[in-house]
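User: quick one - fold this with flavin-adenine dinucleotide bound?
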Amino acid sequence: MKNYHVAIIGGGVIGSAIARELSKYNLDVIVFEKGSDVCSGVSKANSGVIHSGINYVPTSLKARFCVEGNNMIQSLADELSVPLRWTGKFVIAKNNKEVNELKRLKNIGKQNKVPDLEIIEGSEVKEKEPNLSCVKALWVPTAGIISPYEFTIALAENAVENDVRFLLETKVIDLKKQKNLFKIKTSKGDFQAEVVVNAAGLNCRKIVSMLEEPDFQVYPCRGEYLVLDKNYSFLVSSMIYPVPVKDLGVLGVHITPTMEGNLLLGPSAEFMDDPDDKRTTKDMIDILLKEVKDILPAIPDNAVINAYSGIRCKLYPPDSGGWADFRIEESKNISGFINLLGIESPGLTAAPAIAKEVTKMISNHIDLKKKQTFKTRKKNIKRFSEKTHLEQSELIKKNDRWGRVVCRCEQVTEEEVIKALSNPLNAQTLSSVKYRCRAGMGRCQGGFCTQHIIRLMGEHLDKDIGKMRLKSPNSYLFSGRTRGEKP
Ligand SMILES: Cc1cc2nc3c(=O)[nH]c(=O)nc-3n(C[C@H](O)[C@H](O)[C@H](O)COP(=O)(O)OP(=O)(O)OC[C@H]3O[C@@H](n4cnc5c(N)ncnc54)[C@H](O)[C@@H]3O)c2cc1C
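Assistant: Sure. Structure tokens for the protein plus flavin-adenine dinucleotide:
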């Protein structure tokens, strides 16, 4: 059995960022992900905001890693060829009582060393955001947006390009420590490693309990979002936040532009018993629209094209009204067992800084030597639809697949779908295609292109139609007999 230096459980943004950071060193690293692709958990279902650090208790790990991550993310995104945008954000006060809250946030931000914060009059806000009305607002220029799935996929793919092994559809079932090695039982066989990193998100408690009695509980808290059609992106250009909802320790329903040009409304905050209950509900759609219209009345109901939800990994119960910090620590009882617990917001922003910290913790166990061959991820980030006519016709001359548009809404071509299917992780579901090239993400939500993508999956992967899946190990797209098959 091969001996890995480090085994990471979970291919979300945290596990993938750690894997990518470790891939700079001469180490054998393996990542186990139970989903059919990386970014199967909460990392794909959030606001995609690069937070500045105005919301977190000074001296907390959340504050530290948020600010450090915010400072690191531009150069990391450049190395990964992932676009991001510093849109800035307004936290708005609708009355004088809320203005005091803005002052409090500004003060926290100052303590956390968030630069250039400014409280400005409602009239000044209107110059930048004509559709918005408020008494005053806190302007936060160092807040930005990134596509959370593009970022996570890029981290993981770049780690693979630098020799990290990712095993998809591989669930960690049990852990044991024998002498100096962890024995890792998975759904695809047994492995062993010197260090285990628990980056299993909402499942972090289950992983801890495989080796010791956990001293914490997880309280899943669902956040639902609405996605607006791109036609309404003109309504705001920055992020618009209310003052935070103190009782629940969440930031409140906000309006967020996405890198793709949609607006997101949400998230709600609802504590749940079941961490897998990712339903979206008609009731919550109505509540979200009502709350957002208080801020931005110009949003029409029929602008909503989709809804999704993400589950927060909270370490405190709903009635505590409290706040819990990230826990990033090595077990006191089991040497080499590193746990990332309660990584809720701002986990996406903090991921690069958390990855550095975990690497430092690993260096207490393993002598880390930099690799000479480490490579960044060179990828043309301009989509076909963003290229000039001249650039497009040059591509079509070389390969006519560039000339066949598969997804009409997002103008995605056959060649882009094929490239998405040829990913280094070998992820092969309909969702893997969608998250890599946007086919199926437009207004019709795959109504037109799904059949064409399935045809290309069949041709490219040489796969029987009955084996094709939507997004997870058992999510088969077709069941029963297909036309032409004998009964
Ligand atoms: C509603 C909402 C909004 C948010 N907005 C923001 C934001 O705007 N900005 C920001 O910075 N942060 C935000 N966050 C926080 C951010 O999304 C999370 O902190 C981050 O995604 C956590 O990443 P993760 O890798 O820990 O978890 P996950 O992405 O959930 O990854 C864990 C992975 O582990 C895998 N796994 C679990 N158990 C096993 C097992 N036994 N074997 C193998 N694999 C396993 C899962 O399949 C999963 O893929 C938000 C979170 C929510 C819920």
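One thing worth noting: The domain at 85-144+218-319 is CATH 3.30.9.10 (D-Amino Acid Oxidase; Chain A, domain 2).
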